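S.,

Sequence below, as promised.
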Amino acid sequence: MTYRRSLVNFFVLLASFVVPSLAQYTLKDHFQGSNFFDAFNFFNGHDPTNGFVNYVDRKTAEGNKIISASDKDVYLGVDWTSKLDPAGSQGGRQSTRLESKNKYNGGLFIGDFGHMPGGICGVWPAFWTFGPNWPFQGEIDILEGVNVQGTNLMTLHTGEGCTTAGADQSADLLTSNCWQQAPDQDNSGCGNADKTAASYSEFNQNGGGVYAMEWTDSAIKIWFFPRSIIPQDISSGKPKPSSWGTPAANFQGGCDIPSHFSDHRIIFDTTFCGDWAGAVFASDPKCGDKGDCQTYVAQNPEAFKEAYWTINYVSVYTAPEVKQLSLLALPDKASDNQPAAKHSVAPAAETNPAQADAIAHNAAGATGTPPAPGVKPPAEVKPKKIDQEIATANETESG
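The prediction came back faster than expected:
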């Protein structure tokens, strides 16, 4: 009898490990083609990162041919024909900043891009997510860089009390403290630099690729797959992150993810110069001889013809749930007529609820900046940002 109980208990314990691996991510949102823009708000306020940019609404962007959509893909570009006043009397070069109407509290985010705006002097593109009460509800920079940066930078920005170890990842850990005001990090958050040029500077010449970000209660992970090696499970719409191997970035360690990340929107933006790209422009080996960043961007529109996104799709999947499993236990006394007792594995606990939008920005006594992607590149210091812009970018629904 003891042997029979032990055998049943063994299988129940085994099931608790096996069942989660069998669970599948479920598609929640799919943004593609002609309906893509309907899922996003167009932010048209002052750039929180103080860039030389004029973010325009959807009507203006369509009229000026800055954006377009077909059944196949979406184009997000910038004005590459107008010479501008370097002093900013025209508000900077026209571009767009898109913010998803839907908010998210975890899941699997996959973006397939045929082209991105990186590798151009003065340009600062980013694909990222953030919560409304920045930085206390977090920011996740999935794809980001400035000027002619070589590889992608992946970063988290949070309130105090979140760190990452940089273990079990392929990227180089640059900074480990995700707190936006961490000492000696110059507001850079916790950042990782990819080691492959295909992730950024050679992205376009290789036909682009797929970025995937998995956000769970225990970790935030980012993968990049060049066009030639995109996993079949992604292409088939049945993603299995457990089969993808080591992530480029694995944000895990001393961070309670649910308490630092909630109510995120998906963001695409392309800005110019500003607090980061402008600050390191002169020291960039390929941009420094072009003079002042803002003057260069204003007077050389043709340089930005390639500063555009081609978005094939963005998909968001909900986290897999562990389905209840029942196993038949053998009775203590063998009998053909006695029904077997059932043992079950309980479903996984639900994700913590989202934090409220209305948390006061200064609740933790922080002086920070509005949501703005960024991390300092190797051997460079990302400048401190401006507190006064927080109100502008905390929650935008314009467009």
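Residues 155 and 207 are 24 Å apart (CA to CA).

Coffee later?
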